[in-house]
Specification:
SAM-dep_methyl-trfase, alpha/beta, 2 domains, Rossmann fold, 5-stranded mixed β-sheet, Transcription Regulator spoIIAA
Length: about 325
Amino acid sequence: MSPEALAEFFSQLQHNLFQQLSHDATETRRVFHGRGRCFVGLEQLTADWLSGQLLITLFKEPEPEFLVLLMQGLVAMTEQDVWQVSGAQALLLQHRKRAGSPMEVVWGELNGRPVIQEQGLKYQLNLGRNQNHGLFLDMRLGRQWVREQARQKRVLNLFAYTCGFSVAALAGGAEKVVNIDMAKGMLNRGRENHLLNQQDVKKVTFLGHDIFRSWGKLRSLGPYELIIIDPPSFQKGSFAATTDYHKILRRLSDLLAKDGQVLACVNAPALPSQFLIDSMTEHAPQLTFVERLANPPEFADSEPEAGLKALVFRG
């Protein structure tokens, strides 16, 4: 990371952040995306406005000079009038490459369990404990698409995490949603997310199981008009996209209702959209590729195939 590039960072950050604050300070948005490699020297730096808290994340340990200048610039930003009247609660800096991914408070007071808002829906985050806070912001348009498609449908949400897709599906009028993920703690937070939005959890099933050992159970709860596949790119001991994705695709014929839809996602820079298209052609030939969903504009990438890929298929 380049100290000389920090002037561009603060220019972009302040423009995007203050534009968001003037539009809707309660809405969550990424306000700087260095990971898209559109800003030379800032590739390991992001900034997220979390409905009142600004989270700056360093994905690589910087040189001491860079860190000193970054901190000085952040403090100076909090002294501006527009920040002072923004209603901001905290400015946070997370070091992803340090042991435990520690988070320090640059300004204000940390709210470790904030409730944020995205497109009128609420989500419970957990800051300062894990690398990921509970909602992947680059999937905003994917959640929007599910909300638009879910009316009166039975939905299967594979690798559900904190059930963001499930919340969106019920907001769109889904008949029922089945969420499955090995991490039961994340599913508990998913239940909290449904309750935050005053949704009927009787329409939701939470399965804290290994997907690859649960096909019979999933089939008995189906078939589903909409299936969402959003796995981690790699999770040691449980999932690797290059070797395990096809195992899921082979099961779609047993799970998907006639004329049903599949939203298949992958976020590994080395795996392009064609990986999903070719894999579906080979392992679920009954499905036809329809479209790739756009990523949010704030997640611009110099190499679009390196970012999130969310593809729609239809039976």
